[in-house]
Design brief:
Strand content: 15-25%
Order of helices and strands: HEHEHEHEHEHEHEHEHEHEHEHEH
CATH topology of the largest domain: Rossmann fold
CATH class of the largest domain: Alpha Beta
Strand order of the largest sheet: 8-7-6-9-10-11-12
Distance between the termini: 18 Å
Number of helices: 13
CATH architecture of the largest domain: 3-Layer(aba) Sandwich
Largest sheet: 7 strands, parallel
Number of domains: 2
Number of strands: 12
């Protein structure tokens, strides 16, 4: 089992002493079933080896046993959407840190990692612009009849509602305002109203009001026990005529039965997603141009986001071993 890391120290000197043995010579594995761009990998290796660590790579692996074998002697792990489950963690007795290169981290068993003293981090903000651009593109795509012949609409002057006002949500709002949209947002976890005021965005008081006013609803909530299946029939059927729900978050937050019922009863509603639901083929067959999903999740699939997230992951590992920094830890 990995060394249990004490995350709090009486003095900074104590923290520095504790991490002295970690500063150099750690073995870092880049485990990516869907590999980083070459430029990203080269940068990751340069950062890590420049700090005195060794780097190994497991790319385009096709079987989980390959991952289990590869983690046997590593101290740190960089992944993308790879599943770091309890058995992977058990197979890595020296593991001290996992960095998910991206914002979402539901592919990592954070609870088991915490039990084993393994720090889990994400790289928030590195993919945000890529996801925000895709969300806006999806709005235009749906408003223009999925780029098929026929009269479409414009997004200028429409109300853009943002559900969760984090890094991506704020960027979507900024881009929407630049295109002449009226932007409103709801996020119960953002208590500082000046954030909304600074952006020129109206903060609404409830999720019900948000959906009731949305011509376009951009969804950015994480998949948690509280949010899974939370977006369903009641919220969707409360949206204005011709409204579009844009999901660049997670498929699990959608109540698929409620979605199908809402699309069936409301022939004006549209749904576009960056992650195909389980009932994708049924939605395609039943609702035509009112539904679209990308073939696979593409929000972070830009060269820039790929490089940014990878380099950030490498830097966070270096800082963790040098100073014990756990700024982006998600399993406290």
């Amino acid at each position: 089992m990995a060394t249990i890391v004490p995350y709090t120290f009486e003095k900074k000197e104590e923290q520095a002493i504790y991490f002295t043995s970690f500063v150099k010579g750690m073995k870092v594995l880049i485990a990516t079933e869907k590999p980083f761009a070459k430029k990203a990998v080269d940068g990751i290796v340069e950062i890590l080896e420049g700090a005195g660590h060794t780097v190994s790579r497991l790319e385009k692996y096709t079987d989980k046993t390959q991952l289990l074998d590869a983690v046997a002697d590593v101290d740190a792990l960089i992944v993308r959407s790879d599943k770091i489950t309890c058995d992977v963690l058990a197979a890595a007795p020296n593991l001290k840190i996992v960095v998910r290169a991206g914002a979402g981290y539901d592919n990592v068993d954070c609870a088991t990692a915490k039990e084993r003293g393994v720090v889990v981090m994400n790289t928030p903000g590195q993919n945000s612009n890529a996801v925000a651009e895709l969300a806006i593109a999806m709005m235009i795509f749906m408003s223009r009849n999925c780029f098929t012949p026929g009269t479409g609409g414009e997004i200028k002057g429409k109300t853009l509602a943002i559900h969760a006002y984090g890094n991506v949500g704020r960027l979507v709002g900024c881009k929407g305002k630049a295109l002449g949209m009226n932007v409103i947002a709801y996020d119960p976890f953002v208590s500082d109203n000046s954030v909304f005021e600074c952006d020129g965005v109206e903060k609404v008081d409830s999720v019900e009001e948000l959906y009731r006013r949305a011509d376009f609803l951009s969804l950015h909530i994480p998949a948690t026990p509280q949010t899974k299946g939370s977006i369903g029939y009641n919220l969707l059927t409360s949206m204005p005529k011709g409204a579009t729900l844009v999901n660049t978050a997670r498929k699990e937050v959608i109540d698929e039965a409620g979605l199908k019922q809402a699309l069936t009863e409301r022939e004006d509603l549209k749904y576009v997603s960056d992650v195909a639901p389980e009932c994708c083929s049924e939605l395609c067959e039943c609702f035509g141009k009112r539904y679209f999903a990308t073939p696979k999740k593409m929000g972070a699939e830009t060269a820039e986001a790929n490089i940014n997230a990878g380099l950030a992951a490498a830097r966070q590992i270096v800082e963790f071993f040098e100073t014990g920094c756990t700024k982006f830890q998600v399993n406290r």
